[in-house]
Amino acid sequence: MLITASSLNTYTQCPRRYEYSYIKEKVPAAPQAALLVGTAVHIGIEAFWNKLDIHTSLHNVWEFFKESEFWDREAGELERFRIRAYITGYYAHRQHMLGQYEVVAVEHEWTKVIDGMDFAGKIDLVLRDKQGRLILVDHKTSGSSDVDNPGSTFWRGLSYDTQMILYREALSEIAESSGAPALVYDVVRKTKSKPAQRKRIAKKKSETTFEYEARKLANTETPKEYAAKILNTYTTDDTRYIWREIPITQDEATNKTEEILHIGRQMSADHVVYPRFQNSCVSRWGACPYFDVCCGTDSLESGSFKSRPAHVELPNQGEKNGK
Known about the structure:
This protein is α+β, with helices and mostly antiparallel strands. The protein is built from 11 helices and 10 strands. It has helices at 5-13, 15-23, 33-49, 54-65, 74-94, 153-156, 162-170, 209-219, 223-236, 250-268, 291-295, and strands spanning 2-3, 26-28, 102-114, 117-128, 134-142, 182-189, 241-245, 282-283, 286-287, 305-307. The strands form 3 sheets. Strands 1, 3, 4, 5, 6 and 7 form a 6-stranded mixed sheet that branches. A two-stranded antiparallel ribbon has the order 2-10. It has a two-stranded antiparallel ribbon with strand order 8-9. Helix 3 (33-49) runs antiparallel to helix 4 (54-65), helix 3 runs parallel beside helix 5 (74-94) and helix 5 (74-94) packs parallel to helix 9. It is globular and about 75 Å long. 24% of the residues are buried. Mean pLDDT is 90; it is low at 318-323.
């Protein structure tokens, strides 16, 4: 069995969800907007650290857009404008970093046997600073209001992030570090803005509600105007991009690694039970995508789900995926 940070997190969130996704290899058929946006931005950032120009980066993202009908919808069109702004701004505000670090690895797949178990993953970025220390970077997009506050739960929770702890373990397989490696989160702050009114207008006493709404519509920014505005915002405002190291002691890393190994042994046991964790059925983001299956009102074999190999993000793992 191959164990990744994603499968570990899914198992601890809800073993039944892990079973459906990684054992039965069924995932929601409908595209998940947040995941699509995160992937698109990731493609653009990957191109930057591979030292490709902005035009190539955006071309790679446009090619990704062709894979889903989501981008042709109204919501998808707005996200396309935002993504272009995120990536263009990233190039503008991160350009100076290319001279500060040596790029050791970009999107590096790794495998490592730890305590007799097969672990694997893909590291977004590994840099080396001028002192010879390795820097493990994880790219994130976030619309959280907490992202601006270094003391928020968003940042404090990352000090024991499963993914980064595992990747820290894998760094020794990639290159030597002068001192303990640094763990850095590279965050792009997303926006929920939409085309706005060009100027304030109030309802006239002489007009009907229909007439007022029509006037408001005519006063709303066009898609082209909105795209230009959001692009200007992200290319001029560097606070939209956060680069923050997460301090972690060796004891903290050791303790978290032991927790990971304990969970891994549970997942790898000969007779694994996959109970439902009811508290995970509904969150502030909505219901679990498998909620109706657990309730008995839908089936994994229905059109709501499609088959997809486990650990599809690790194409070089071949037949190990999910097995």
